[in-house]
Amino acid sequence: MGSLALRGVRKAYGPVVALEGLDLELRVGEVVGLVGQNGSGKSTLLKILSGLASPDRGEILLDGEPILLDSAAAAARYGIGMVHQEQSLIPNLTVAENIFLDKAHASKRFGLYNWPALNRAARLQLQKLGVDIPTNKRVEDLRFSARQQVEFAKVLAIEEMVDRPPLILFDEPTSLLTPDEIQALFAQINRLRARASIVFVSHRLEEVLEISDRVVVLTDGRKVAERTKQSIDREELYELMVGRQRVDPSIQHRDRHVTGAAPLLEVDRLASEPHFHGISFKIGRGEILGIAGVLGSGAEELCRALFGAIKPDAGTIAFNGGASGPGSPRAAVQLGIGYLPSDRRSEGMLPGRSITENAVITYGGQYGWKSWLLSRRKEREAAQRWIRRLKVKMDKEGAPISSLSGGNQQKVILAKWLLGRNLRLLLLDHPSRGLDPGARDDLFEVVREQVDKGLSVIFVADTIAELLELSDRIIVMRDGEVTAEFNPALGALPREEDIVAAMV
Ligand SMILES: Nc1ncnc2c1ncn2[C@@H]1O[C@H](COP(=O)(O)OP(=O)(O)OP(=O)(O)O)[C@@H](O)[C@H]1O
């Protein structure tokens, strides 16, 4: 049995202290759940453990001996590997190549692959997970969940390289998986548990409590609680993290009323092959339409089409009484349509620019151009109001957006849309992905408040619980078609299993 320990670890980025005085023990046979608000230091800790960042102070001990983790290769030599949230696979290489990509493997001679040996070795890795994926298939041709298993197998291949039990780090591994796929992942983690130490980072507290033996809570870079799974429940964990009690959202839902039936948007037999076809629905002013669908259901592309980013092949979009929907994102913005994409990093932000610049980028100029200084000041003040309201954790507004933690970047991108004075329809594609549970509740509160003032929202949900919590109406999509429609605003809350049945 071995153990890895952090002692007094500190890490700062300029004036921002990301981790302070952190002591943590990771033992073989144990899953440690790591939770904390956005910006509390979780990613920084994972980076330190995987050799991607070095602590400023403190030490890392392996079986009591100090070790230096100054690169990913050094971490791999000690048996440490990370299953990344955004997968690290190379799409046009085969499964086998990806599994052994960064490892010197015996199946490579004189720079050339011995393909049979490589495929055999890859099959062995996949067998450890109990999965059967063709090892000569290119990764781009696999479903997302299969790609994640390859990612997992790639990390597990570290096991053969070292003579000690591995430490496997999972960074929000479930956010793109279906409930069944999550259970399959948990079964694999359970199988692995006996011969590895595992760190599981997630904002989904139920899942953390299900899979972890011990839960560690970080606040502002410090460990504020460490509990065994038996000694804590979801509510207490939420309170420890967020610093307040959770309000039951179902009560808020009952209090909401749909403000008007006049349709703001009418979609009729809309199609964009191969993504979706025959999609028809209406959404009224002040209404929240939730869309359920797994990856590949077409829900994401539908949002893009409503924002004018994908041209439909057939059907019509009538917005606000107009005959046609937006022909381009620019036209969408002018019509009062906002869109929070699920891939915020590549589509939603300008990484080199400051937090404020990112917030005002879309609606710059909405206070007029006459008095330039006055308008800019109003713009900034409006941005600052939203940034405060959404509790963006930052050093200063002039800092680059890329210096924020993932969840806080997301809040800024959301603020960018909320700034729009003529915003009528907001398309939210997985808005809570990456947000901590408190931030997620704050976001939903903001959405409800804006909807009460007449904003309409289309929202592709991360989980069914969220869908039920926020939506007035729900449509379910599968393989590009609407397979079911539910109407919780009329009082009948659909059953979770009915929604799932229409999804998969
Ligand atoms: N490269 C960087 N430059 C400046 N500050 C940084 C940098 N990376 C992280 N930080 C800061 O360190 C703190 C911790 O960030 P970290 O990404 O570890 O948080 P997190 O808990 O993973 O958040 P999230 O849940 O949003 O992913 C934050 O205040 C963040 O702004």
TrEMBL record:
Keywords: ATP-binding, Nucleotide-binding, Repeat, Sugar transport, Transport. SMART domains: AAA (SM00382). InterPro entries: AAA+_ATPase, ABC_carbohydrate_import_ATPase, ABC_transporter-like_ATP-bd, ABC_transporter-like_CS, P-loop_NTPase. CDD domains: ABC_Carb_Monos_I, ABC_Carb_Monos_II. GO terms for molecular function: ATP binding; ATP hydrolysis activity. Residues 4-245, 251-504 form the ABC transporter domain. This is Sugar ABC transporter ATP-binding protein. It comes from Lichenicoccus roseus.
